[in-house]
Amino acid sequence: MSMLFKEPVQASPEQIVWLERRGWVYELLMDFLSRPPRMSLIAQWRQRAEATDRIPNSRGGKRLRSYLESIPEHQFRSVCHLEAEEYRRLFMGDRGLLIPWEGTFRAKRDGANAAACISHIRSMYADSGVVFNKLSGERDDHIAMELEFMAVMAEGMRSRADLEHMRSSCLELADAQIRFLEIHLLKWAPRLAEEMIRATETPLYSGLAELLREFLHQDLEQLRKWKADIS
């Protein structure tokens, strides 16, 4: 009688740090790109930035961390109001300066089929078993929704990178994230980040834009390395 043994995934110390950090970074980007930030959100991420080293030590990461840590207490309320207004100016309403939806962005910039783009995104969510609780009619191709998908997948892969899970499970999750980065996020998010850098007037959104532009490429590289190491 033959027996099947689970083959453990062995992660290096550097890979463990990356696995623990990446979902946190996707969550950070998603939080600030989903809606106008409230005081509580900025306070929460300022506290996290001060208490941990999970914001990448890149140019955008350093700028963002420095800004969050340097907001004077006596100006905190006014700064938070300013950043909420900046989000509205950049992303909301008919006068929003930027396009936060992949289908619309790629249709206008590249002549892509927006409906087909959105349909494919939905199928990738469904194939990965990810269902979002939409409270305000959010579109599946909104930048924040795509980042949230990656955050969910990152957490799933991190939780499986132990001695109790099969190698094939981690490979499937890595493959799904690599495909989503290659087919969707990296097709437009770096360009959105470039436009945000040119359009924004606040250090919060310039730092977020730089971090978005840097992190997606770095994460794809790490995912490919992770896959090669455990294959």
How far apart, in Å, are the first and last alpha carbons?
Answer: 27 Å
Cα gyration radius (Å): 19 Å
The structural class is mainly alpha
Largest sheet data: none
Please report which band the strand proportion falls in: under 5%, 5-15%, 15-25%, 25-35%, 35-45% or over 45%.
under 5%
Helical run tally: 9
What is the string of SSEs from the N terminus onward?
A: HHHHHHHHH
Cα shape: globular
Helix content: over 70%
* Mean pLDDT across every amino acid position: 88
Sequence stretches where pLDDT stays below 50 over 5 or more residues: 1-6
Number of strands: 0
Molecular structure report:
With 231 residues, the protein is an all-alpha fold. It has 9 helices and no strands. The protein has helices at residues 13-34, 39-51, 59-70, 76-91, 102-110, 114-127, 143-160, 167-199, 203-230. Helix 1 (13-34) packs antiparallel against helix 9 (203-230), helix 3 (59-70) packs across helix 9 and helix 5 runs antiparallel to helix 6. The protein is globular, with a radius of gyration of 19 Å. It starts with 12 loop residues before the first helix and ends with a helix. The relative contact order is 0.17. Residues 1-6 have low confidence and may be disordered.
